[in-house]
Design a protein that fits this description.
alpha/beta; Alpha/beta knot; 9 helices; 7 strands; 234 residues
Length: 234
């Protein structure tokens, strides 16, 4: 079955214009506003999280801060979305799940490296770079580990940067979802204030807008085929 992903960039724009007519004007205006704040310059990776509320809170944080991609490594623990925590955020981001291998960490992180990301490991270490000192001009994939054991040895081996969040109390670490929120807020805030071209490209924008509209209408796959057929794109 042919989908919008098989279309040329020009055809996608025509298709989106037709598809978006099925949403309210306020809805499409909201999409147009939010898409300009989306980024793939920084992405978030969570490894082997076993508490669904923590992983779901991370998704919610990613959406709120304009991160389009979240990568979930499922080695021992299958990721389950907690709807009461995620609040539908998984519909608006691109969620990549790695669960085909015995250990999926290397596949995930090497794939991100091949796309130009520096792997940032959140790990207590005497040689850590403080969060405030992370260079946001590089594409960054920030990895958060398991609630009890932290990051795996493979994740540590693949890391380019070891990062530490400043703390001023007796407790040794933040909760995983809190760590992700603090880190991503700080990094994205500095990124948006920088001269880095952090917005997603035009091709990605139209693909993302189409997916958002499809999430907003009923029977979207059937509607897609009807519109593509009417436009002569099938």
């Amino acid at each position: 079955m042919k989908t919008f992903k098989n279309l040329t960039s020009y055809q996608k724009k025509i298709y989106y214009n037709e598809l978006s007519k099925l949403c309210t004007e306020n809805r499409t205006k909201l999409f147009d506003k939010i898409i300009e704040q989306r980024t793939r310059h920084i992405t978030l990776v969570i490894e082997n999280i076993y508490q669904s509320q923590n992983a779901s809170a991370v998704l919610r944080t990613a959406d709120c801060l304009g991160l389009q991609d979240v990568h979930v490594i499922e080695n021992d623990n299958k990721y389950e979305i907690n709807p009461d925590v995620a609040l539908g955020s998984s519909k608006w981001i691109d969620l990549y799940r790695y669960n085909k291998e015995a250990n999926n960490t290397k596949q995930c992180l090497q794939s991100l490296k091949s796309k130009g990301y520096k792997i940032v490991a959140t790990l207590p270490n005497s040689n850590n770079v403080m969060l405030d000192d992370i260079d946001v001009s590089h594409k960054l994939a920030v990895v958060f580990g398991n609630e009890l054991k932290g990051l795996s040895d493979i994740a540590i081996e693949e890391a380019d940067i070891f990062m530490k969040i400043p703390m001023y109390g007796f407790t040794e670490s933040f909760n995983i979802s809190v760590s992700a929120a603090i880190t991503m807020y700080q990094l994205t805030d500095r990124l948006r204030k920088s001269s880095v071209k952090w917005q997603i490209n035009e091709e990605d924008k139209i693909d993302t807008l189409i997916k958002w509209v499809k999430h907003s209408i009923k029977y979207s796959d059937k509607v897609e085929q009807e519109i593509l057929n009417r436009l002569g794109f099938l």
